[in-house]
Design goal:
By secondary structure, this protein is of the alpha/beta class. The protein is built from 15 helices and 15 strands. The strands form 2 sheets. Strands 1, 2, 3, 4, 5, 6, 7, 8 and 9 form a 9-stranded mixed beta sheet that branches. Strands 12-11-10-13-14-15 form a 6-stranded parallel beta sheet. Strand 1, helix 1 and strand 2 (25-29) form a beta-alpha-beta unit. The protein is elongated. It starts with a strand and ends with a strand. It binds 1,4-dihydronicotinamide adenine dinucleotide (NAI) and uridine-5'-diphosphate-glucuronic acid. Residues 6-12, 29-32, 35, 81-84, 96, 99-100, 121-122, 155, 157, 159, 269-270 line the site of 1,4-dihydronicotinamide adenine dinucleotide (NAI). This is UDP-glucose 6-dehydrogenase. NAD(+) binds at residues 30, 84, 122, 159, 273, 336. It comes from Halorhabdus utahensis (strain DSM 12940 / JCM 11049 / AX-2).
Length: 432
């Protein structure tokens, strides 16, 4: 099939590269000329393990990028993989989606055969049918079901595991109101389902349900982490090992072992944005989402608890303090909504002299905090520090040992249960 993907960011590039790998012809549209040039040169415009190889194999060949929407006309189906960032009130900003829908409508106006438009971006229930479809109708002069069709197909991959998650998903959710759209999407995914290591469930559902499934998935996972964090905080007060508790409750298959790592909480480009959006959407309909409010409140408290623990051990004013880890999770250089930011802010309020280290996210953080010191290694960050705060659970932090000996005062405050308590360090942790 000929598939087009509008937007070549984390999601767009990943799905475009995989569709090409699965044998489809892929046209990628992006407004950013540098992104388009990278794709056509066989280079990945984003950092994701394994993507360089796929781009080298297909970029400029089975996968061709362009800034020209007219190139979409030759495809059977177009995925919209555009950003849906937060407005100040938590609702989603649909400006990129609306602009793309209008451009797509202009193309569909000139097309003789049927075209399927698939919303891949995360959008609030009702957006696809009530905002995106009417824009395409206005621009194309055609109506849904007569000239073009519309569907919603949310994405569940994680950054850092994007390729593996996309090629071997737990589920593929197809939200559509007409059989032909469902049949076309099933044909797009057929080679993926055949090649998948597991046996992905195909969930055929309504468009609004598909939109909601995505928010429910992320809200559930964020709440699961906040719940284990709340339980971990109570464990800490009673001198109970929160990780032993988590391992035991994980044996109940109704709970399972995933997303039970308590600590500094969740960040990233999606949990904060998506939980904010579904809370705002609930309030828009006069529903008070008390549990989701609490999910965020617990998450916001965790960095403060880490800083309180630090205060219990030492006064850091004028002292060198190491911030260990800046990315929102290991395996990525993404610092969006990272817990490192409230930790850095708290240290600045305390007049600490910050030295930060992350294996890959330093340059991104330097743009936001140009005035703090950045170390090139964990050992360099620890040297001469009066305290070290562990923010991201990078594996290399678990291997630190003699490096602690170079600290001025060996106060280690662990936000991610990544350092083993041992002789020679004054250890404290959020959940231990
Ligand atoms: N990043 C992730 O891990 C996941 C993201 N999502 C959702 O997928 C959607 C896309 O997110 P990302 O890929 O992370 O976004 P991104 O910000 O990485 O990439 C978006 C791309 O769209 C391009 N763009 C913006 N306006 C355009 C327009 N009018 N026409 C053509 N291209 C345009 C930008 O130049 C950029 O390359 C969001 O709704 C997000 O919530 C869903 C699951 C996972
Ligand atoms: O909608 C999205 O963009 C994606 O959001 C998350 O993926 P991602 O943000 O890449 O990262 P996760 O691995 O889910 O981690 C999110 C945050 O939770 C934290 N976390 C996770 C698990 C855990 O046990 N404890 C914990 O604190 C991580 O440190 C991280 O800050 C979801 O896992 C994906 O399914 C979804 O597609």
């Amino acid at each position: 099939m000929h598939v087009s993907v509008v937007g070549s960011g984390y999601i767009g590039t990943t799905i475009a590269a995989w569709f090409a790998e699965l044998g489809h012809t892929v046209t990628n549209v992006d407004i950013d000329e540098d992104v388009v040039a990278a794709v056509n040169n066989g280079e990945a415009p984003i950092h994701e393990p394994g993507l360089d190889e796929l781009m080298a194999a297909h970029g400029g060949d089975a996968l061709v990028a362009t800034t020209d929407y007219d190139e979409v006309a030759g495809s059977d189906v177009t995925f919209l993989a555009l950003p849906t960032p937060s407005n100040d009130d938590g609702s989603i900003d649909l400006s990129a989606m609306k602009a793309a829908a209008e451009s797509l409508g202009d193309v569909i106006a000139e097309k003789d055969d049927d075209h399927l438009v698939v919303v891949k971006s995360t959008v609030i229930p009702g957006t696809t049918a009530e905002t995106i479809a009417p824009i395409i109708e206005d621009a194309s002069g055609k109506t849904v079901g007569e000239g073009f069709r519309i569907a919603m197909n949310p994405e569940f991959l994680r950054e850092g595991f994007a390729l593996d998650d996309f090629k071997d998903p737990d589920k593929i959710v197809i939200g559509a109101e007409d059989d032909q759209a469902v049949e076309t999407l099933n044909r797009v995914y057929e080679p993926l389902v055949e090649a998948a290591a597991g046996d992905p469930a195909i969930v055929e559902t309504g468009i609004r349900e598909a939109e909601m499934i995505k928010y429910a998935n992320n809200a559930f996972l964020a709440t699961k982490v906040s719940l284990i964090n709340e339980l971990g905080n109570i464990c800490k007060e009673y001198g109970v090992d929160a990780y032993e508790v988590a391992d035991a409750i994980a044996l109940d298959h109704r709970i399972d072992e995933h997303f039970l790592r308590s600590g500094l909480g969740w960040g990233g480009s999606c949990f904060p944005k998506d939980v904010a959006a579904i809370r705002a959407a609930a309030r828009d309909r006069d529903y008070d989402p008390v549990l989701l409010d609490a999910t965020v409140e617990v998450n916001d408290r965790q960095p403060e608890r880490l800083l309180d623990l630090l205060d219990d051990h030492t006064d850091v004013a004028g002292k060198r303090v190491a911030v260990m880890g800046l990315a929102f999770k290991p395996g990525t250089d993404d610092i969006r909504y990272t817990r490192a930011v409230p930790v850095i802010e708290g240290l600045l309020e305390r007049d600490a002299e910050i030295v930060a280290y992350d294996p890959v996210a330093t340059e991104n953080m330097r743009e936001q905090y140009p005035d703090i010191t950045y170390a090139d290694s964990a050992a360099e960050a620890l040297e001469g520090a009066s305290a070290a705060l562990f923010v991201t659970d990078w594996d290399e932090f678990g291997a630190l040992d003699a490096e602690f000996e170079a600290m001025a005062e060996p106060v280690v405050i662990d936000g991610r249960r990544i350092v083993e308590p041992r002789d020679g360090i004054e250890y404290d942790g959020l959940t231990w």
